[in-house]
Amino acid sequence: MANSDNTYDIIIVGAGIAGCALAHGLATITSAARPRPLKIALLERSLVEPDRIVGELLQPGGCAALRKLGMSDCLENIGAIPVRGYCVVNEGKQVHIPYPDGLEGRSFHHGRFIQSLRAKAAKATGVDVIEATVAELIIADGTNRVHGVRATRKGKEVKENFYGALVLISDGCFSNFRAEVMGEAFQKPLTRSHFVGAILKDVQLPIDKHGTVALVKGSGPVLMYQIGDHDTRILIDVKTPLPSDLKEYILDKVVPELPSNLQPAIKDALELERLRRMPNSFLPPVEQGEGGMTVAFNDVVILTDLLRSVQDLDDWECISQILHAWHWSRKPLGSTINILSIALYDLFGAEDEDLDVLRVGCFNWVCLFALFAFYSVPTLTIVVIPTRISPFRQHLIPPGPSLPAFLRGRLLLDLGHVHAPTPDHVRRETRTRTPAPRRVPLARRAQCAGVLDGLRCLWSPALE
Predict the structure, then answer these.
(1) Whole-prediction pTM value?
(2) Residue among 237, 233, 241, 260 nearest 250 (CA)
(3) Which of 25, 33, 84, 462 has the most CB atoms within 10 Å of its CB?
């Protein structure tokens, strides 16, 4: 029989980014249909301040979502640093990509932000924050509906049942319940690389209060951003399998390609600090959600608004319709960030010679937008700078040359000053079973022969 003290309207598993926002957001919804606050249990395995190397930079879109949830004060008194855009560095060149309209993000120590979110959730009316390890889900007999969890409180040995009309699982990328909830649709996360992190002391980034993205040839990108008055986080993307001597690999392959004024501090950090690692895993896009604090906070905003009108949380037909609406409402932001992040990661972390041409072309395309006074959020950076929930269309069709046309033009120019071959020559090249390394690019140059005239037409209206 259920213990009335352990019976709630909603149970949330995981007091991290999404869980805390959900608890506070749902606790504040009242309407004519629901005059009293919900009773919510927020269960977390450990309430000790976490020490992680990710989840330290919140984009302007995430800050806006926090304001909508009434949680923007969680960014105060934690030493957060304003972030006003990005600087992208490639082979000594750099391009400034500021956020538009004076918008700002925030960067911070992850653990301090989490503790601030937890404190905010704990103060919300009707929320019980419980330190307990959830061992299993309670499924109603004869159905697939979860109506509770079985957990052990800290310092206790006996498991307790917690019951709720809704059970929301938000236990992060290392979820213990993803496979159980998804069933046959579950796919094991694919680890593509690892972030190797350290803290640099008292360094000056290329542009103050801007994140720095350094493109490293033959390796993944390097991200740097300030998280305190004296602390700057560096995250180095290292592909799997990890080298046997990680420190030597970074010193030999990565550090020489980073800004020279930062190299001494990076070497000091490699010598003095224990390198921290975090796997970068690809999770197939599913209803349960996608990565990123900005996406998570916006998911909470949408779900909170949809649940506001629900009178009976036990009415599964109504809840099912709500979840269906939420699934599609979150797509414009979530899918855009998710798809572009995967595509751009594959591009900027590629070792393939042909993809390297595209990588350089993309960087030059971003540089070009400095000529158009529209380089705030081009398509290339919408993945790392999701400043707004909407609209996206105006950013996906910027003025000036289109990215595909520009890349074809750069391919024609960058692969050598060679006249375009004749059609007969191209046919001979493409018929070859094992083309020489330079033959495929030669054939591609033929396909690009008319691009320069097209680029001139594309550029002209933007320059008028």
Answers:
(1) 0.80
(2) 237
(3) 25
